[in-house]
Amino acid sequence: MPSASDATSRAPNSPSSSHTRSRAAVWIAGAALVGCLAGFLIQLSRVNSAQDDLTQTTRALHAARLEAALGAAVIEAQSGRYEVARQRASDFYTGLQRQLLPVIAADQQADARAMLSERDSIITSFARSDPASSGVLASVLARLRETIHDAGLDSTSVTNAPTR
Fold first, then answer.
1. What span, in angstroms and rounded, lies between the C-alpha atoms of 113 and 106?
2. Which end of the chain, C or N, has fewer beta carbons within 10 A?
3. Which secondary-structure segment (H or E) carries 163?
4. Is the pLDDT of residue 164 over 50?
5. Could you please report the per-residue DSSP string of 61-76?
6. What pTM does this model have?
7. Looking at residue 15, what is its pLDDT?
8. Sequence-ordered list of residues with C-beta below 8 angstroms from that of 157, at least 6 positions apart, any chain
9. Average pLDDT over residues 84-112
C-alpha cells in the first residue's frame, strides 16, 4: 500500500509540478517571442530592401523621362519646330535641376551643372530659330546619357541589379 508521502509527490497540484509547468510556459513564451522577433526582423530587412529598390527605380525613371524629353527636343529642333523644341528643352532643364541633380553623386553633379550652364544660350537659340541649336542640344543629349550611365541610373544598371 502506498504511503502518504507517495500520494503527495504524485499529486497534480503539488508545488514542484506547478513550478515545472510555469517554467515550461516561460520557455514556450520565450521561444514564441524569439520566433516572432526573428520573423519581424526578416520582414523588416525585406521591406528595407524593397524600399531601396523602389528608390533606385524611381530615380532611374526620372532619368529616363529627362532623357526622353531631351530626345524629343532634339527631334523637334531637327524638324524645324523650334518653339516646341524650346518648350521641351526648358522642361528638360527644369527636371534636370529639380529631379536629377539632387540624387546623383558629386562627380555627376559637376557634369549636370555644366549642362545647366548652357540652358540660357540654348533656349535663346531656339527662340531665334537657329538651325545650329539642334546640334548643340544633341551634344547635350549625348552628355546626359553618359552622366546617367555613370550615375547608375540607366536601364541596364537598374535591370541588372542583384535581386534580394
1. 10
2. N
3. none
4. no
5. HHHHHHHHHHHHHHHH
6. 0.70
7. 58
8. 60, 149
9. 93
